[in-house]
Amino acid sequence: MDFNTIIQILDSAVRLMTPLLLACLAGLYSERSGIFDIGLEGKMLMAAFTAASVAYVTGSAWLGLLAGIGGSLGLSLIHGVASITFMGNQLISGVAINFLASGLTVLLGQKIFGLGGRTPSLEGPARFSEITLPFADSIRNAPIIGPIYADLISGHSILVYIAFLCVPLTWWVLNRTRFGLRLRAVGENPASVDTAGVSVARLRYAAVAICGILCGIAGAYLATSLSAGFVKEMTAGRGFIALAALIFAKWRPWSALFATFLFGLLEAIANRYPNLDIGPITIPSMFMNALPYILTVIILAGFVGRAIPPRAGGEPYVKER
Amino acid sequence: MAGAVDEQKGRSDAAAPAAIELRGISKSFGPVQANKNISLRVPKGTIHGIIGENGAGKSTLMSILYGFYKPDSGEIQVNGNTLTITDSQTAIRAGIGMVFQHFKLVQNFTVLENIILGAEDGPLLRTSLSKARGVLKQLAQEYQLNVDPDETIEELSVGHQQRVEILKALYRQADILILDEPTGVLTPAEADHLFRILEGLKAEGKTIILITHKLREIMEITDNVSVMRRGEMVASVKTAETSPEELAELMVGRKVLLNVDKAPANPGAPILEVRDLKLVDADGVERLRGISFDIRAGEILGVAGVSGNGQTQLLELLGGYPEKGSKISGSVRMNGETLDLTGTGSDAATRRARGIGHIPEDRQVEGLIMDFAAWENVAFGYHHAPEFNKGLLMDNAAILLDAEQKMERFDVRPRNPNLAARNFSGGNQQKIVVAREIERNPDLLLIGQPTRGVDIGAIEFIHKRIVELRDSGKAILLVSVELDEILSLSDRIAVMFDGRIMGERLPDSTTTGELGLLMAGIVDTENTPDSAGIPPDLKHVEELPQEPA
């Protein structure tokens, strides 16, 4: 395997990890506030659909992005009302959102475009184009640094850079701001926030809304950057993989970057080597494609050490007598 | 509410407004009237005790004051200003601080983070943190409230966690501090330190409201005391002009015996023989480090100690449900036969079948299923008994009848077996558990904290039943953090510290001072006077780890 191949695989890993990273950070905000969210998948799917549809109709990827965020936020609001205001079961609400998105996207897609649930292919400004960073071309031929900068770091859509910027930003928000302090507190012990005179519900709604926005960006990226349009069930379990990555990362932003990169890398390797030859044995493509899901199962089964979720996670806050 | 803070410096002549003035406060939760037409006046710069049985409405009243509940009617005045306290923020701005019985701290936050939470100076933390650090240092000096600001809460002892709660209130510039059952979780030395802090706060002109059910504390530290009973304020008196007996009578509305009437024990053959019992929990912490004792028929062995010194593990192990992953060694014999400590023969059902009853420490978690009806709870643990079953099905009618009889005999109120356990008061929940276990007539009864959060009337009743069981020739292991309870009930007292039994004493020939030393892990009691509480040099040792870094 030569250096260029490695760069290409890493480049592909970066593209593939981006939706995972965004969804993982989305889940991080929600779960650190104490609201479990297994509806990441559904929100991403809804966002992919609304983004692709609006981008196709208006011809603008940016309007598509806004629509994606809107679609995802709508579902977030449902989750918030169910689990914060009405103190419902967060898992059930999340499952419902996944089913709702799964059915609604195909139904609306068929009704509007008549292509069996797909949207038409996006072209030109309806997709996010790749950005070439300054000097990328002039230093491409420099050894090692050149290809790393020109091929790996440069040449992604704006949403990839946004996703990566979200990592330090999230760390900063969580650890250096008042909002972050309160967010972490409300996920650990909402009574401490309530008795300090801060509204638990308002904080949790804010967290759920941020979750919706990030899922919206993730879905829009899937439909208008990674692919060229919406396809039925195009999220393919990425929301659940993001959840596994979140647990793997122990609900921390920098670890989330690492965890989602691992998943992205596995997917990239599977794409690159559908039938991997190891001496006399050839690993079939089905196994390679299943790798990220296998890793998910391993992580969720607790083989990566104890992950302690936010203490108040999953529990609606009820003032006690 | 803007004038609230300015006014407190005003002259304290007779006409000065009280720190807190409540008029006609009423509050109902569904059919339960928690507060009925309550009026209360707390003068500035005093320590005011509020005392009453569990369910008397003390906590509800204070929660109303702190904006947790809205009263159905009535008026609240703080420093002479009428306020509508709709949320805790309003209460905080009016200068009210509250230290809850169950601390409202974020376990994995540092002390500093907990203190600024909700009282940050701006959207970024940096300035708030450095300001809080300075203020904290100042408060620590002023009131002996030393806590390392960078320690996380889970690393702190309960006593220190409580200091953080007090600091939180002071950081928010509280002039009126409400403490709800503050000494329930403290060692005697810690409680003593708390009282000195409270006296320091009072000297600075702060007003303190102390909610407690411990008469001794009321007598020791308060200036005035108000007594609540069944949602009503029945008396407000100067502490100097009353007595513990009078207060106890006011609380329950009749004379109570604070001492248990019991004949000397008449011990028979050993029922339980425990030898060199060791337990290492799943985290590798040694919880029991070689415990040995006997309990004979017709005898109550009291285990005293500050909670967290292995008593819980001892009860759980004997009861048949030690924490998963614990490593256990040693031997336990019951009626001469060895009990399995591990494996299938060591579970709680087998223990019950061998004649061991268990009143667990936490009735709400281990003793009852809170959402199930009382009649179901009365059968739990014994639901396989033949009289409760008909073939494959449970005989609900028989269980219900049995529950009705037990509730009658144990005076559980309300006498409604269909009510969920959650809807009974603490004392009546405990009576349900006690009825279930005692009525089975076990050879050995394990009891953990039988009267924690239980009102005086129920305490008296439960104590009587325990003594009756002893007198019928049964063995009783009583674990309690209440020294008074240990002293008045036990025939022998074992003191636990750090997983060991530090020594055995007889209740008639020991003192709370001596037991207090043993509870603090100090074995050499030979040279200390009997009557001493905790000696000054021990207090000093207590202080050491809190010096700021």
Describe this structure in words.
The complex is a heterodimer of chains A (321) and B (549). With 321 residues, chain A is mainly alpha-helical. Chain A has one domain. Chain A has helices at residues 3-32, 40-58, 61-85, 90-113, 145-153, 158-176, 178-188, 190-195, 200-226, 238-248, 253-272, 285-300, and strands at 130-131, 156-157, 276-278, 281-283. In chain A, the strands form 2 sheets. Chain A has a two-stranded antiparallel sheet. In chain A, strand 3 (276-278) and strand 4 form a beta hairpin. In chain A, helix 3 packs antiparallel against helix 4 (90-113). The longest helix of chain A has 30 residues, at 3-32. The model of chain A has no long low-confidence stretch (mean pLDDT 92). With 549 residues, chain B is an alpha/beta fold. Chain B has 2 domains: 4-252, Rossmann fold (3-Layer(aba) Sandwich); 270-370 and 441-510, Rossmann fold, CATH 3.40.50.300. Helices cover 33% and strands 24% of the residues of chain B. Chain B contains 19 helices and 22 strands. Chain B has a 6-stranded mixed sheet, with helices on both faces. A 6-stranded mixed sheet of chain B has the order 16-19-20-13-21-22, sandwiched between helices. The two termini of chain B are 39 Å apart. The A-B interface holds A 175-182, 184-185, 188-189, 191-199, 311, 319, 321 and B 29, 59-60, 63, 66-69, 87-92, 98, 100, 104-109, 113-114, 116-120, 122-126, 128, 168.
